[in-house]
Structures are given as structure tokens and as C-alpha cells.
Design a protein that fits this description.
- The chain is α+β, with helices and mostly antiparallel strands.
- Helices cover about 60% and strands about 15% of the residues.
- The protein contains seven helices and ten strands.
- It has a three-stranded antiparallel beta sheet, with helices on one face.
- A hairpin with a 5-residue loop joins β6 and β7.
- The longest helix is centred in the middle third of the chain and has 156 residues.
- The chain is rod-shaped, with a radius of gyration of 85 Å.
- The chain starts with a strand and ends with a strand.
- The C terminus is likely disordered.
Length: about 400
């Protein structure tokens, strides 16, 4: 529409020639919407609200008297409020490029003032503090001309040929270089270890592969060997079974032959031995009975012979007294006692002979046949030999004589 004007989003439209604006400004400010402007009676101008940049390169002297070349970049713009637009429009509307020049000069002065109160170490290590102080001190002046600063960046600080910053950074550079060398050495060592580990793993893999291949090859060889030996093994197994069967048959034949030998030789021999033993026992029993009968007969014959010889024994004993000097003290009674003693001695001799014969038969040292033979060679008194011994003792002419 003719006479209707609309500012861009980053512009402020300033309309002059009519009634005054806010606060007695020579123009009215229109932002964000259009406005009908009467042609020939009103004049329209536009003030940029976009971001502007100013670069500052200034030589500043620190508190230590060291000259530093400082380069900074300032990002600024016209404020969005009507007061800032009016202040900026009154100063820069005809020549808006002057905003960057003026801003650079303002910040250069503040940089020199603030850097002069700081040391090189503080400036180098605390750049953000330096920028914040410059912004704080320049905020009031920038507001007066309708500008606001979004940021201030210290791009570089250089001491020229003084070498102070280099000297200050030398220990740090050395430490950094040392750390870099250590890191490089560690990286090299790690790389070498990684290579060695990779080589070991490759060698281990190669070894395992070789082992597996060898195992497979061994299995194939074993399978082939087993396949080649299957026929001979089967034949040997069959021969072994034949030999086992033949051995079992031989053992059975030997056992049968043994049983035959037992039936044909051992059993008849045992029967013959039993028959001989029974016959020998019977013969021994018969001879024992005969010996007992003969012994019994001999004892009866001996007793009879002794009884028959007893008068002769007494006679012989009495005959031994005929030449002895015997004093009879009690007459007929004394003679009777002597005769009785002689008879008693004869009976005692008879009992002793019987006991000796019984002991010899019990121990088996003599047989009745032997006793009879010795008696036959002794004379015609029934085959026995008796000896009567008498003793005489003379004490004196006045003492008595004892006869045993």
C-alpha cells in the first residue's frame, strides 16, 4: 500500500517530521510492525539492530612494566528498548559504521587501564577475569550511546621480543614436553607390548592349529592303521578262539583220562592195599590171641613147677643149716619158728618169680617160647632154674647164729 512502511526484524524504523517521540525524541520508533507514513510530510529511516563486531589491537603496559600487545574482539549491538534505539539513532543513524570504531576505542582505553593494574601471570592465566572487568567498566559508557556488549574475547597476548611469556612458560613447556615424551614412551611401550601380545597370540594360534592338525593326522593314521589291521586282527582273533577251543578240549580229555586212570589203577590199588591191611590186622590179632594163650599156658605150667619144687627149695634151705652153729634158745618152739621161716622164704621166692614173669609179658621184652627154651636147657626139673642163697654170720662163740 502506498505510504505503509514495515521495518525488518533486525531493524528499528525511525519516523521523523511529525509529532515527537518518547521523551522528546525527534522521531518515533517503530519495531516489529508496520506503520502508515504520510508521503512528503514524514521521513522514514532505519537503524540496524543486528550484531556488530569491533576488533581491538592495543599495546598495554602491565604493572610490572612489561609491554604486551593485546588483541580482543567485541560483539555488540543496539539495545532493543526504545531508549537505547533513540540514543543510538541520535549518534549513529547517519553513519552507523561509527558504532564499531567508537566501541573499539572505548574498549581499548579500558583494556589499557585494567591491564596496567595486573601482572603478566594474571593476564595470561586469568583472561576471563580480564574480560569481565573490561565489560563491567565499559557497560555504563556503552549504555549511554545505546549499545550493549554481548561478549568480549581476548584473542592473543604477545610480549614481542621481551621473551617474558616464553620464559614464564618454559617450565610448563618442559613439563609438558616431559609428559609428552613420557606419554610417547608409554604409547610406544604399549604399542610394543600390543605387538608382542599380538605376536604371542599368533604364535599360540599357530601352535594350537599345528596341534589340532597333528591330532587330526594322528587320528587319520590310527584309523588307517586300524583299517589295515582289521583283517589280520580278525584272523588272529579267530585263531585265538580255535586255540582256546582246542585247549578246552585237551583239558577235558586230560580230565577224562585222569578219571579213567583213577578208575583203572588207583581204585584197584587202594582196594588191594585195604585188603592187605585187613589181612595183616587179622593175622596180628590171631598171633596176639595165640601169644596170650601160650603165655597163659606157660604161667600155669610155671606155677605147677614151682609148687612141685617148693619142698625141694625148703629142703635145700634147711640143708644149709646143717653145718651151721645154731643155738636154739627156746627148744621145740624155736625149731618150729625156723621151719616156718624157711617155708615163708620159699613162698616169697615163688611170688617174686611170678611178678617178674608178669612184668616181662606186659613190656613185651620176652615171650613164653623164650622162657620155655631156657627152662629146657637147665635140667630135668620142669625147665626152671632156682638158686637158693643162704648166709651165715658168726658173731662169737657165745652169740647166736642168724640164718637168712
Amino acid at each position: 500500500m502506498f505510504g505503509y512502511r514495515v521495518p525488518a526484524p533486525d531493524e528499528a524504523m525511525l519516523i521523523s517530521g511529525g509529532r515527537r517521540g518518547l521523551g522528546g525524541a525527534p522521531f518515533r520508533v517503530v519495531t516489529g510492525h508496520g506503520k502508515f507514513v504520510v508521503p512528503f510530510f514524514r521521513k522514514t529511516r532505519f537503524l540496524t539492530l543486528s550484531m556488530n563486531e569491533a576488533e581491538v589491537t592495543e599495546t598495554c603496559v602491565t604493572r610490572q612494566g612489561i609491554a604486551l600487545s593485546v588483541r580482543a574482539v567485541i560483539a555488540f549491538k543496539v539495545g532493543n528498548d526504545n531508549e537505547s534505539i533513540i540514543n543510538a539513532g541520535q549518534r549513529f543513524l547517519s553513519d552507523q559504521e561509527q558504532m564499531s570504531v567508537l566501541t573499539g576505542r572505548i574498549f581499548a582505553g579500558h583494556l589499557r587501564a585494567i591491564i596496567g593494574s595486573m601482572t603478566v601471570e594474571e593476564i595470561v592465566t586469568e583472561r576471563q577475569k580480564l574480560a569481565a572487568e573490561v565489560l563491567d567498566t565499559s557497560k555504563t559508557e556503552m549504555a549511554k550511546i545505546g549499545l550493549i556488549v554481548d561478549s568480549l574475547q581476548i584473542q592473543s597476548i604477545d610480549d614481542g621480543d621481551a621473551g617474558y611469556i616464553d620464559a614464564m612458560s618454559a617450565p610448563h613447556r618442559a613439563a609438558i614436553q616431559r609428559q609428552a615424551q613420557i606419554a610417547q614412551a608409554q604409547a610406544t611401550q604399549a604399542a610394543a607390548e600390543a605387538q608382542q601380545e599380538a605376536a604371542r597370540k599368533q604364535a599360540e594360534y599357530a601352535r594350537q592349529t599345528a596341534v589340532v592338525k597333528a591330532e587330526y593326522s594322528a587320528e587319520v593314521d590310527r584309523a588307517q592303521a586300524q583299517a589295515g589291521q582289521a583283517g589280520p586282527l580278525a584272523q588272529a582273533h579267530a585263531q585265538q578262539e580255535v586255540l582256546a577251543a582246542q585247549t578246552e578240549l585237551a583239558q577235558r580229555q586230560a580230565k577224562l583220562r585222569q578219571q579213567q586212570l583213577v578208575a583203572e589203577v588207583v581204585k584197584p590199588a587202594e582196594a588191594e592195599a585195604e585188603r592187605v591191611r585187613v589181612l595183616a590186622a587179622a593175622e596180628a590179632q590171631r598171633m596176639k590171641i595165640q601169644a596170650e594163650a601160650a603165655a597163659s599156658y606157660d604161667r600155669v605150667a610155671l606155677d605147677r613147677m614151682l609148687i612141685d619144687q617148693l619142698p625141694q627149695i625148703v629142703k635145700e634151705a634147711a640143708g644149709g643149716l646143717s653145718g651151721a652153729n645154731v643155738n636154739v634158745l627156746n627148744g621145740a618152739d624155736g625149731l618150729g619158728e625156723i621151719a616156718a621161716g624157711l617155708v615163708s622164704q620159699g613162698l616169697t621166692i615163688l611170688d617174686s618169680v611170678r611178678q617178674n614173669l608178669g612184668g616181662q609179658e606186659a613190656t613185651g621184652n620176652s615171650r613164653p617160647e623164650d622162657n620155655g627154651g631156657s627152662g629146657g636147657s637147665g635140667g630135668g626139673n620142669g625147665g626152671g632154674l632156682l638158686q637158693l642163697r643162704s648166709g651165715r654170720e658168726k658173731k662169737s662163740d657165745d652169740g647166736p647164729v642168724d640164718v637168712d
